[in-house]
């Protein structure tokens, strides 16, 4: 089995390399060959549904970065950001929804000798290619502390970029935890990120200003605010379509043959699967997904994107967790547990930007990931 990853920016092919199949793919094939056909005769629907082919397909894609990034960039927390968390919590209570994205940027601008600007996140060295990997980046530790509690004690890192930014997500996730206050909730959303809400749900107050620089309080102001206009009102595809869960898994939402499980849609709605009439001879299936410029730009603030992963459902862990098929997808409390099938490590950050005005000038990207099953 082989595969390759292509990344497109409009009509421009910006990247093409082979992927790496990991041990999870072999485990999936073993599951397929050893599951008992006799389950079909059991009257219990949840049991017989274990044989459904959808349980053994690629079901999600996710994105990751180097482990050192999780203690730096927008994952870090300091006195200034604590002050800002309180400020934005007060705006939420008095003015309604204020985007957490206005609170998270902690990447400095760097000038080249020719005057151009770059925004390089701090990531260290991402994990080397290893077919035994079960997550995109193992051994991640986070040092951020909010209200005297380690964030990782309640929300341990899972090896990839997570999705806490939309208020509908972070307000639910912090309920009944030590971070349940509005100020702590905003701080958690800002630390764990990593993808913006839909443009349609981002609201700004008329006096608020936004910046591509580190957010700080001006000495002349009694309350913190964001410096000169820089961040455009741009959201992400994933949270607009509710296709990414809080753990950072983007759901498979369609195939080339629509049925009750996979409905036809665009790549901006989630992970898509397709195959042409030559599949019987070439065995090629393509998985594609689009990232909005906002998805790329804000992921860049959390360390960028150096890992891509395709995932199948981990049947054993899902059943042990008390979930039975068909496994519905949800942003919160997703009942699906996943097994890494293949991965791709990048030597250059997918969110790297450089130019005379590095004002989050990321572009929408399309990932095409082809697997050859013959």
Total beta-strand segments: 15
What string gives the helices and strands in order? EEEHHEHEEEEHHHHEEHEHEHEEE
Helix tally equals: 10
* Radius of gyration using CA atoms only: 21 Å
Tell me the helix content.
10-25%
Class by alpha and beta content: alpha+beta
Shape: globular
Mean pLDDT: 80
Instruction: Give a quick account of the main beta sheet: strands, pairing sense, barrel closure.
Output: 10 strands, mixed
Describe the structure.
The protein is of the alpha+beta class. The protein has 2 domains: 2-66 and 237-372, no CATH class; 67-201, no CATH class. 21% of the residues lie in helices and 20% in strands. The protein is built from 10 helices and 15 strands. It has helices at 23-34, 45-48, 79-95, 151-154, 167-173, 182-192, 237-241, 279-282, 293-301, 315-320, and strands at 2-9, 12-18, 20-21, 58-64, 110-111, 117-118, 145-146, 149-150, 250-254, 271-274, 284-291, 307-313, 338-345, 354-355, 365-372. It has a 10-stranded mixed beta sheet. A 3-stranded antiparallel beta sheet has the order 5-6-14, with no helix packed on it. A two-stranded antiparallel ribbon has the order 7-8. A hairpin with a 5-residue loop joins strand 5 and strand 6. The longest helix is centred in the N-terminal third of the chain and has 17 residues, at 79-95. The radius of gyration is 21 Å and the shape is globular. The termini are close together. Mean pLDDT is 80; it is low at 105-109 and 204-232.
């Amino acid at each position: 089995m082989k595969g390759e990853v292509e990344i497109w920016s409009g009509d421009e092919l910006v990247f093409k390399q082979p992927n790496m199949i990991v041990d999870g793919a072999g485990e999936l094939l073993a599951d397929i060959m050893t599951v008992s056909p006799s389950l079909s005769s059991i009257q219990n629907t949840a049991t017989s549904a274990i044989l459904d082919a959808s349980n053994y397909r690629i079901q999600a894609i996710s994105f990751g970065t180097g482990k050192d990034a999780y203690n730096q960039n927008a994952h870090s927390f300091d006195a200034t950001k604590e002050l800002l968390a309180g400020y934005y919590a007060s705006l939420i209570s008095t003015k309604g929804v204020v985007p957490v994205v206005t609170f998270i940027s902690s990447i400095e601008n760097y000038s080249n000798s020719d005057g151009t600007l770059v925004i390089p996140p701090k990531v260290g060295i991402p994990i080397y290619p290893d077919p035994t990997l079960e997550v995109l980046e193992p051994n991640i530790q986070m040092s951020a502390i909010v209200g005297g509690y380690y964030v990782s004690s309640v929300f341990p890192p899972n090896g990839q970029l997570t999705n806490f930014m939309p208020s509908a997500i972070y307000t639910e996730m912090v309920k009944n935890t030590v971070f349940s206050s509005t100020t702590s909730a905003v701080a958690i959303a800002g630390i764990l990120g990593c993808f913006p809400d839909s443009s349609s749900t981002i609201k700004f107050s008329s006096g608020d200003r936004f910046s591509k620089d580190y957010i700080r309080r001006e000495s002349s102001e009694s309350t913190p605010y964001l410096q000169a206009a820089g961040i455009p009102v741009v959201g992400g595809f994933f949270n607009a379509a509710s296709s990414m869960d809080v753990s950072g898994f983007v759901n498979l939402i369609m195939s080339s043959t629509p049925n009750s499980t996979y409905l036809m849609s665009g790549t901006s709605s989630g992970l898509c699967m397709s195959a042409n009439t030559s599949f019987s001879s070439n065995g090629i299936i393509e998985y594609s997904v689009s990232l909005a410029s906002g998805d790329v730009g804000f992921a860049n603030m959390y360390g960028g994107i150096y890992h891509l992963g395709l995932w199948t459902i981990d049947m054993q862990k899902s059943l042990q967790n008390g979930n039975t098929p068909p496994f519905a997808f949800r942003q919160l409390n997703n009942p699906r547990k996943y097994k890494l099938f293949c991965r791709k490590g990048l030597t250059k950050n997918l969110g790297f930007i450089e130019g005379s005005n590095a004002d989050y000038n990321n572009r929408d990207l399309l990932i095409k990931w082809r697997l050859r099953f013959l």
